[in-house]
Amino acid sequence: MDTIMDAWKSAWQGYGISNYALLVASLIAAASAYRNWQKTLLVVWILVYVWTMTVLLGGGSGSFDMQEGMNALWVCSYGLLGFLFLAFLIYTNLKE
Questions:
Q1: What is the mean pLDDT of each run of 10 residues along the chain (96 residues)?
Q2: How far is Cα 50 from Cα 79, in angstroms, rounded to an integer?
Q3: pLDDT value of residue 4
Q4: What's the confidence (pLDDT) of residue 15?
Q5: What three-state secondary structure class fits 58?
Q6: CB atoms closer than 10 angstroms to residue 86
Q7: Model pTM score
Q8: What is the DSSP string of 11-49?
Q9: Shortest CA distance to 40 belongs to which of 93, 94, 95?
């Protein structure tokens, strides 16, 4: 799991996004969540899920090895549970 977290951290630090930009994005997300939290959660989860799976499976950094330790199990578990959570969010938004 530490290898996966290191891959996410190195990919995030590669973007060079300032803390002020993150603060503004968090305030916008909080205001959107106040208006409609279900749709905001859906959009935020889509962004997080797609980004994390792209980082893990895209191999942009080249330092992440799927055959090392239990990395394949962690990535597959995250992918499955994340997809099920995404399906649940889509279902709740369609039911609304």
A1: 82 88 94 94 94 81 70 90 96 88
A2: 10
A3: 82
A4: 87
A5: helix
A6: 15
A7: 0.82
A8: HHHHH---HHHHHHHHHHHHHHHHH-HHHHHHHHHHHHH
A9: 93
Distance between CA atoms of 18 and 16, rounded to whole angstroms? Answer: 6
Q: Which amino acid is at 60?
A: G
Which token pair is 32? Answer: 């959107």
Q: How confident is the model at residue 7, as a pLDDT?
A: 82
Count of positions (residues) in the chain: 96
Look at the block and give the residue holding tokens 């891959």.
7
Q: Decide if 25 contacts 47 (C-beta within 8 A).
A: no
Task: For residue 62, give the 3-state DSSP assignment.
Answer: coil
Radius of gyration of the chain (CA): 15
